[in-house]
């Protein structure tokens, strides 16, 4: 994909579907290209975009999920650590056979981490991606 | 114990080692020959890896010798305290997935400094980020080198320090070759192969150990207790860290380092640039989490399995000490051939991680310091790569020298120091940059230096470095700081310094801040998949 580089981004385009090819390309254009049209980010008013309601909602949807999740489940890990350090006899209490509270609590941390991963991916695919894609397309359209 | 004159058969061990090295080198040569010779390939492999491939590669980067040899050994000898490492190593990925991976991919290009300096004054921030990258990579390298020394010592029966030093030098040499020939693309393939081998190798041992106990975890724990001089104590916390209030606090500090470190480790962060989009960065992190979690559950069983089947005393007395628990367990399970294979995997692990670290450190030096700071960003890409290659050789040589000194230390412990530095120097700055609009140049510089300098200084004056028989310099006596891990002090300090620097200097460029934030959330204008 040398082309996008050699053509540069700020040249005046005449052949729209051939943006990814050098101007003097020959003989036939490669019509099914995978390279995205380079966006001139200079033309985007990011300050306005940041203040837009769409962006505010997107940001809020992200932070209101991510921050509490991180706080809760990293917090749970510290509960585990502090109990291990300052209440070792509680952690050593056997639940069944030789398996004690500590091992089960440790494994619980594994389970919650898998849970957070699953929940975040679901949240991102269902809620964040559609919003961020539409916002990006909107901004890219404005930059042309 | 005749077992330790030679464990297994050295000739067999050497052959399997050689096979691993030759096979992976073959892969490196093949993948690099097929690709175009573009300069960006050296750093990011052309950003053309898929999320799953990259997830495997991150797993490969993250599961170092410390995770396999170090954690297994720590559990075998110290029981539950070793398990605390595994939980921290894993839970840390919550922060990486939710807060760091995607915004990082959307705003950066090659190195961690790209993101930190995006909306700041380039030179001071880049310099600080590059210095911290180089420091962390170096400490991490020491740990890997020490692991290589111990492992080969065990396998080839080399117990003399000079012989082990020679082995460390050899590992360094092979690693430099990998990086020079393969660049990021080659090392990424090595990481992927190694991740598959390592997780499946550990998986086989996991089922084998459990099968011997009739698939009873409780039975395995019982067998470990029966064969351990400390008995029941290995099932409860604080066998290793419980002796005084300082050691307890050291452990809390370690826990902070373990959970904050991964999102600040430059070689892990750089991996998020080798995929085309933020969505692929997310997929990478998910694959990594899936594999890393399974792996650390395996190590819990491997550790207690080693205690039950090999015995803590035997492990402690083996050449390589605690680090030899996993290979010795393999020997008990499947004899010398299986041990040679498991050790070959461990060795491939070390090589791959060392190569990944070297490429990160050299990219950071060439891209951040040489190109952007010294030459004002006007360097020809080919020249930048030339500098990166020279840097790899230099770092390789330094790592060999450092590794010779670090030989014999528990690698999980050494790694925890690198995690401590990464958590303190990088994580606060990264989180502030992404999530605090007012954060500015002075804040970034102060935060990085405060975290870096305090963490390194506190380590130097800690009991890890001097003052006792297990320290780096047992003869020295400058252990003024009572904790073995600095993070409980240095991480909050970095947060405070970042805040203080920010409020005492002018507000940042609002336009750049807006640009970075909108980019990080939408991926607009992100460096393209292939044509960087």
Spatial separation of the terminal alpha carbons of chain B: 58 Å
Number of strands of chain A: 2
The pLDDT mean of chain B sits at 85
Helical amount among residues of chain B, as a percent range?
over 70%
Strand tally of chain B is 0
Please work out how many helical segments of chain B DSSP would assign.
21
| The CATH C-level class name of chain B | Mainly Alpha
What does this structure look like?
The complex is a heterodimer of chains A (144) and B (532). Chain A has 144 residues and is mainly alpha-helical. Helix content of chain A is 63%, strand content 3%. In chain A, helix 3 packs antiparallel against helix 5 (101-142). The longest helix of chain A has 42 residues, at 101-142. Mean pLDDT of chain A is 80; it is low at 1-14 and 29-33. Chain B has 532 residues and is mainly α. In chain B, 74% of the residues lie in helices and 0% in strands. Chain B has one domain: Sodium/glucose cotransporter. At the A-B interface, helix 1, helix 2, helix 3, helix 4 and strand 2 of A face helix 5, helix 6, helix 10, helix 11 and helix 13 of B.
């Amino acid at each position: 994909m040398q082309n996008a580089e050699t053509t540069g981004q700020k040249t005046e385009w005449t052949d729209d579907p051939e943006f990814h090819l050098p101007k003097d390309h020959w003989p036939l254009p490669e019509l099914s290209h995978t390279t995205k049209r380079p966006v001139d980010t200079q033309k985007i008013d990011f300050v306005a975009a940041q203040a837009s309601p769409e962006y505010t909602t997107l940001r809020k949807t992200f932070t209101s999920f991510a921050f509490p999740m991180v706080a809760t489940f990293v917090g749970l890990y510290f509960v585990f650590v502090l109990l291990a350090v300052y209440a070792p006899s509680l952690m050593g209490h056997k639940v069944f056979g030789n398996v004690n509270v500590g091992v089960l609590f440790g494994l619980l941390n594994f389970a919650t981490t898998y849970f957070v991963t699953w929940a975040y991916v679901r949240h991102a695919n269902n809620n964040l991606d559609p919003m961020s894609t539409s916002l990006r397309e909107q901004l890219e359209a404005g930059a042309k | 114990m005749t077992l330790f004159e030679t464990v297994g058969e050295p000739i067999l061990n050497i052959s399997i080692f050689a096979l691993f090295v030759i096979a992976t080198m073959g892969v490196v040569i093949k993948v690099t020959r097929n690709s175009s010779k573009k300069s960006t390939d050296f750093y990011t492999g052309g950003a053309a890896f898929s999320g799953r491939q990259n997830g495997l590669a991150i797993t490969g980067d993250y599961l170092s010798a410390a995770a396999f040899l170090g954690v297994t050994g720590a559990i075998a000898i110290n029981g539950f305290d070793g398990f605390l490492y595994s939980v921290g190593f894993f839970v840390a990925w919550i922060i990486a997935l939710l807060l760091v991976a995607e915004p990082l991919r959307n705003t950066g290009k090659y190195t961690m400094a790209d993101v930190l300096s995006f909306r700041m004054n380039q030179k001071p921030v880049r310099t600080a980020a590059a210095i911290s990258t180089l420091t962390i990579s170096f400490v991490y390298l020491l740990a890997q080198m020490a692991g290589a020394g111990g492992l080969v010592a065990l396998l080839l029966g080399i117990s003399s320090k000079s012989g082990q030093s020679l082995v460390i030098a050899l590992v360094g040499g092979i690693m430099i070759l990998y990086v020079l020939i393969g660049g990021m693309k080659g090392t990424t393939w090595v990481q992927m192969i190694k991740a598959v081998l390592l997780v499946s190798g550990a998986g086989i041992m996991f089922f084998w150990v459990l099968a011997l106990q009739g698939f009873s975890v409780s039975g395995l724990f019982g067998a470990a207790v029966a064969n351990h001089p400390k008995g029941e104590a290995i099932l409860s916390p604080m066998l290793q860290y419980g002796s005084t209030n300082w050691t307890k606090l050291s452990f809390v500090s370690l826990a902070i380092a373990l959970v904050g470190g991964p999102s600040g480790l430059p070689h892990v962060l750089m991996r998020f640039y080798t995929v085309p989009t933020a969505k692929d960065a997310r997929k990478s992190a998910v694959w990594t989490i899936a594999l890393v979690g399974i792996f650390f559950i395996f190590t819990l069983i491997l550790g207690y399995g080693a205690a039950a089947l090999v015995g803590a005393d035997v492990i402690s007395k083996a050449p390589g000490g605690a680090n030899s628990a996993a290979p010795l367990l393999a020997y008990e399970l499947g004899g010398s051939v299986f041990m040679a294979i498991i050790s070959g995997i461990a060795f491939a692990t070390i090589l791959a991680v060392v190569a990944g670290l070297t490429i990160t450190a050299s990219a950071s030096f060439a891209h951040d310091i040489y190109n952007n700071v010294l030459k004002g960003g006007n360097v020809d890409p080919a020249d930048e790569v030339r500098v990166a290659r020279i840097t790899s050789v230099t770092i390789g040589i330094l790592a060999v020298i450092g590794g010779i000194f670090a030989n014999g230390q528990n690698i999980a412990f050494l790694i925890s120091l690198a995690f401590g530095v990464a958590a303190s120097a990088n994580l606060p700055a990264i989180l502030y940059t992404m999530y605090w609009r007012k954060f500015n140049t002075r804040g970034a510089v102060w935060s990085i230096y405060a975290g870096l300098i305090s963490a390194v200084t506190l380590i130097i004056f800690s009991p890890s470095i001097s003052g006792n028989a297990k320290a780096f310099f047992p003869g020295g006596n400058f252990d003024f700081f009572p904790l073995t891990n600095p993070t409980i002090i240095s991480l909050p300090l970095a947060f405070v310094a970042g805040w203080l620097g920010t409020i005492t200097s002018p507000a940042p460029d609002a336009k750049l801040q807006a640009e970075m934030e909108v980019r990080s959330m939408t991926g607009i204008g992100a460096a393209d998949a292939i044509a960087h």
